[in-house]
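Support request, priority: normal
Reporter: lab tech (M.K.)
Component: structure prediction queue

Hi team, I submitted a job for Alkyl hydroperoxide reductase from Chryseobacterium phosphatilyticum yesterday, and the status page still shows it as pending. I've pasted the exact input below so you can check whether something in the sequence is tripping the parser. The sequence length should be 171 residues. Please let me know if I need to resubmit or if it's stuck on your end.
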Amino acid sequence: MRKLLLIFMIGIFGLSYSQKVPTVLKKSFSKEALKQKLEDEEGKTITIQQILDQHKGKVLVIDFWAGWCRDCLNALPKAKELEENNKNIDFVFLSLDRSKEGFEKSLERFDMKNKENYWFASGWKNDFNNYVDLNWIPRYMIIDQKSAIAKYYAISPEDPEIQQTINNLLK
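Reply from support: The job had stalled in the queue. We restarted it manually and it finished. Here are the results:
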């Protein structure tokens, strides 16, 4: 009986903390989400809008991750492979590390220093993450050449829809 109760509790706990596909797959960002501030490696503040403006005219993959996230670290080799196989598009890495020190250590430890990285100094709960229904990481989004959302929700760099979306955008 105890084993059944334990299995039941683990099942309920596991279900309540797993990724849930958003019911609405958004195609654009709200004004509040675009105003969300992040920090770069030097501690300079930048908004989501400024990041999108820097990549306008290019296909952009946004990779949400953190150095403490086991799922993110397991996905990292495939994320690097996706990047290597798509040199003609841009990649931005948005860190959900819990501190600036953790962000810096993660960049160093996981060989991310040569990439475009930003950190949510405001923490997980903020206007951007709330708007994009960020409930788990890793998470991947694809932004088209006009800064619209082309692929709203992917949880693995191996999701075939990621490459398919990239290919369709480059046609």
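The CA atoms of residues 79 and 157 lie 5 Å apart. The longest strand covers residues 60-65. Let us know if anything else looks off. Ticket resolved.
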